[in-house]
Structures are given as C-alpha cells and as structure tokens.
Amino acid sequence: MRERYDRPVATREPNPAPSAAPQACCSPSAPRDEPRATAVPGIVPLTPVTQPARHANTGDTAGMVRLDGGAFRMGSDYEHAYVEDGEGPVREVTLDPFWIDATSVTVAQFATFIADTGYQTEAERFGWSFVFHLHLPRKFADKLAKNASVPGVPWWRAVPGAKWDRPFGVNSNVKDRPDHPVTHVSFNDACAYAHWAGKRLPTEAEWEYAARADTSGQNFPWGDQLEPRGRHRMNVFQGRFPDHDTAADGFVGTCPVTAFKPNAFGLHNLLGNVWEWTADWFSATWHTEDCERTRINPIGPVPHDETDRDGNPGSDGDASKPYGGFTHKVQKGGSYLCHASYCHRYRLGARTANTPDSSTTNNGFRCVRDENV
Ligand SMILES: [Ca+2]
Ligand SMILES: [Cu+2]
Q1: Are 364 and 104 in contact (CB under 8 A)?
Q2: From ligand 2's centre to the CA of 310, what distance in Å?
Q3: Alpha-helix runs per DSSP H in 151-246
Q4: 3-class SS at 91?
Q5: According to the model, what pLDDT value does residue 342 have?
C-alpha cells in the first residue's frame, strides 16, 4: 500500500533546507557554461535569477480571462501521484481575483516583444538549447548523442543555435507556427516578457486554480480519464516513448495554442503541449505547513535575497546561500512529451521544476495580471 500523505506535515525547522528538485523527467536542466550537457539536480544557476513581479496591473486584458479567485482545493492525493514531487497534501488555498492569458504566449506575441525591445534570450546568449531528439534529422541527433546528451534523459540534445525562432537548430524557423506556444524560453526570459507586457508570471496556486476551473479532486479539467470516450483532450505523447510518437492526438511536437477545447474558465491547453513556468521556487515540502502564507495567496518559498508581496525580505531556505539554496522554479501542466509509461505529470495537481536559465523545445509560459486598483 502506498504511504498516506494527505495530512499536512508541519515543517519544524525555522530554516528548512530546500528540497531536492524532482527527477529530470521530460524537462532536463544542465549547467549552461558547459557545452557538454549533464543533468545535475540542484545546480546553481549561472545567470542571476529575476525576482518575479509580485504585482502587475498595467497589461492589456485582451486575450485574458478574469477569474474571481476565492477558495479552491490545490494539490493531488491521487493514488499514483508523484508523492516525492510534493503533489500533496490536498489543501484549501484562497486567492484574490486576477486575470490570466487564455493561452500560452505564442511565437507571434514573443516576436513582437523581441522586435520592440531587442531582448536576447538566454538560449541565444548561451548559444544552445535543448531539443527533443525526434525533432532532429537522425544523423544529426546521433552525432550529438556522443557529447551533447543528458545522462538519464538521453532523448535530449543540446543543439547549437536552437532558440525561440530556430526551435530545432539553425536550419529551422517558425514561419509555419506563429500560433504555437513560444518555446526555448527560460524563466528569466519569461519574466522579461511579462514585464514588457505589464503582466507577471502566475504563482503555482494561481496557475492550478485557473487550470482546475472549479473542479476539485480531479486529474483533468474534464474528469479523471485521460481520453474520455476515446477522445483526445490535450497534446501529449502516444506510442512508445521516447522513440515513436504515433501522434494519435494529431500532433508531434507543439500544437496551436487553441487546438483543443478550453476548460470551463475558457482557458486553453493548460495541460499538455508545453510546460509553463510559474513564479514560485520549487520545494516539495514548503506547502505542507498549514499556515497563512501557504494558504492565502501563496507565492512559494521566499529566500532572504527576495521579497514577498509586501516588499519584505523572506527567510526561507539557507540564508548563507544565494536564493536560500533554492535552485529550481516550478513548472506546471506537462507537455507533448508526457506519456503514461514514463511521466504522467499531465495532471492538474502534478508539478515539476527546472533551473531558471534552462530552456527546451517543450517549455513555455503564460502571464497573469492583477485587477486595477
Ligand atoms: Ca501529441
Ligand atoms: Cu512529463
């Protein structure tokens, strides 16, 4: 029998050590200064980490949906949940109203941001990004397997020149996909876009509340079945992971951001397609403490060198380390690479994390904004 974990376990130390990051599943991370990529859980980011905005209310609400907030049940106690990721306990969380993008930020929207600001993404500055091997010509993928793959997740390749508008390397482009989610964006890149747009990244709680759309205790917005009545409701992986994707859902790789029916809040593709960054540092245990800051408008752990919603410095983690020793940011929703046989994190309560400077072909983001005050 699986261990029960639905009772909150209080964190007793005043400065609990940050929990280790989840096992790299479909989102690898690697030291950015090494041309040879190696997955190292807990690596310190190479570039400074942007503190995500805690408030933003100037962005255009076109393409956004206003949500009432209030109380909802967050997390999962599903019997096959990844307990070690901190999916549980299921807890009541209360949020203020906010606006959220109905879709992931698209390639076309990101192109406008780049044209307007000249911003250089981290993938560009580092000169490479992670690409799933099936997106590459076989010979090229095999060649890169020697010194540009990641132990434990060998289907990733560190591809020179891969970036948001060259998603599969220098010979690719995005002409056929303006309405696909932008990919190869790091956490820092996502924060830069949000700032430009007058918005901010959602907290994990905001993201999950929006994705659940008033359903609690379910794995998916449409119920508990992956493919109800045999119908595909999101873009994930079918076939034999990682070598053969039958694309029974219609898509290998990303799909247009509105390709599947929206949830009851009118929001598209929160599950599947691309992992979405949230503002929160990852901890598998921070939220197990039942207290005001983990239950009312929670923003995840706040280390000593960052500030909370009131502008006060935090005290989570190890005060002697940058960012309190937290190394990974929470990502939600799963991606087109999730498959029941390997990583079933395409569920509402599931979570993963990656280092803030990591970028891949299966990660994107969407933004939120506060109400006018
Ligand atoms: Ca698919
Ligand atoms: Cu996955």
Answers
A1: yes
A2: 35
A3: 187-197, 204-212
A4: strand
A5: 87
Partners of residue 140 on adjacent β-strands:
none
In three-state secondary structure terms, 317 is coil
Ligand closest in space to the Cα of 274: 2
Identify the burial level of 207 via C-beta atoms within 10 angstroms of its C-beta, where 0-12 means exposed, 13-18 middle and 19 or more buried. buried
Q: How many residues appear in the chain?
A: 373
Structural tokens at position 299: 């923003």
Q: 271 CA to middle of ligand 1, Å?
A: 12
Ranges of the chain whose pLDDT falls below 50 = 1-19, 34-44
d(CA 304, CA 189): 23
Per-position b or e across 54-90, b if 16+ CB within 10 A of its CB: bebeebeeeebbebeeeebbbbbbbeebbeebbbbbb
Domains in the chain, ordered, with CATH?
64-370 (3.90.1580.10)
Number of neighbouring beta carbons within 10 Å of residue 236: 27
**What's the 274 CA to ligand 1 centre distance in angstroms?**
11
In order of 22, 37, 84, 159, 207, the CA distances from 128 in angstroms are 23, 10, 31, 5, 29
pTM of the model: 0.91
